[in-house]
């Protein structure tokens, strides 16, 4: 079964059985990497839980062929991820918690801009991955909505509907890298999402200092010049628009007390 995603600016299709993607004639992308349950157990509340063996598929550097040189020049990368339906024990299907590795070309841990394509997402993020996680947010988003994760924050993307596979695209730094060690040392992020029926509730991870979780809906990030159009289409219309992803230092003042 495949679902087209051309309405989000790229001629490609998302497959769920098996997980993966196919690309139109003018779009290039890699074979997806499959994250299996065995790969993410260390970040789960119950590392011995049952769930789909193939948890999610990720394809980094998806692009229209005519955009590739511009993307390389701007140190930008577009990634697409799709999740299996179901659950991981008591938890929803979700990614591993991580922080973005510092990019050599900017000296910053890059931000990331998500756009939900299918399903219902919760983008969880926390200010630090130390014992004190700082501010913690869970941003609930549906198709077409955008969520911006600021530089250096720990985060994970969660499927909020166990019956519907989640798919999203994201703008990333071309030197992207994931750091897992600090999160795994705490056996996850500061809050665990748990499914009660089809609802997601939250349980604090006792390995962090207790704090408050703020559950919010997406906003428009007008300070970064974003519109409601699909984020890949926004790049086509104005290639410089997402320079803040690869050069977050150029807008350092906008990250001070950033609120998702």
UniProtKB/TrEMBL annotation:
EC number annotated for this UniProt entry: 5.3.1.9
Pathway: Carbohydrate degradation; glycolysis; D-glyceraldehyde 3-phosphate and glycerone phosphate from D-glucose: step 2/4
Catalysed reaction equations from the record: alpha-D-glucose 6-phosphate = beta-D-fructose 6-phosphate
GO MF term (any one): isomerase activity
InterPro entries referenced in this protein's UniProt entry, alphabetically: G6P_isomerase_prok (IPR010551), RmlC-like_jellyroll (IPR014710), RmlC_Cupin_sf (IPR011051)
Enzyme class: isomerase
Start and end residues of each Glucose-6-phosphate isomerase prokaryote domain: 54-205
Any Pfam family hit: GPI
UniProtKB keywords: Gluconeogenesis, Glycolysis, Isomerase
SUPFAM superfamilies: RmlC-like cupins
Family the entry assigns: Belongs to the archaeal-type GPI family.
Protein name stated in the entry: glucose-6-phosphate isomerase
Organism listed in the record: Citrobacter sedlakii
């Amino acid at each position: 079964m495949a679902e087209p995603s051309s309405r989000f600016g790229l001629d490609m299709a998302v497959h769920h059985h098996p997980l993966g993607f196919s690309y139109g004639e003018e779009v290039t992308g890699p074979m997806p990497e499959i994250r299996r349950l065995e790969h993410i157990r260390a970040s789960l509340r119950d590392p011995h839980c049952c769930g789909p063996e193939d948890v999610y598929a990720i394809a980094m550097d998806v692009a229209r062929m005519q955009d590739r040189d511009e993307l390389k020049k701007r140190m930008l990368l577009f990634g697409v991820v799709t999740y299996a339906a179901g659950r991981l024990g008591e938890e929803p299907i979700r990614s591993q918690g991580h922080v973005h590795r510092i990019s050599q070309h900017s000296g910053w841990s890059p931000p990331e801009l998500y756009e939900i394509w299918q399903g219902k997402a919760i983008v969880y993020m926390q200010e630090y991955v130390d014992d004190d996680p700082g501010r913690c947010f869970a941003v609930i988003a549906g198709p077409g909505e955008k969520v911006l994760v600021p530089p250096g924050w720990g985060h994970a993307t969660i499927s909020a509907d166990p019956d519907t596979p989640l798919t999203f695209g994201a703008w990333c730094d071309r030197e992207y890298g994931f750091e897992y060690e600090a999160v795994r040392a705490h056996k996850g992020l500061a809050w665990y999402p748990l499914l009660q029926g089809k609802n997601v509730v939250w349980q604090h991870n006792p390995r962090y200092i207790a704090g408050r979780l703020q559950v919010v809906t997406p906003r428009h990030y007008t300070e970064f010049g974003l519109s409601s159009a699909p984020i890949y289409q926004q790049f086509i219309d104005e290639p410089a628009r997402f320079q803040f992803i690869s050069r977050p230092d150029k807008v350092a003042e906008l990250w001070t007390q950033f609120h998702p």
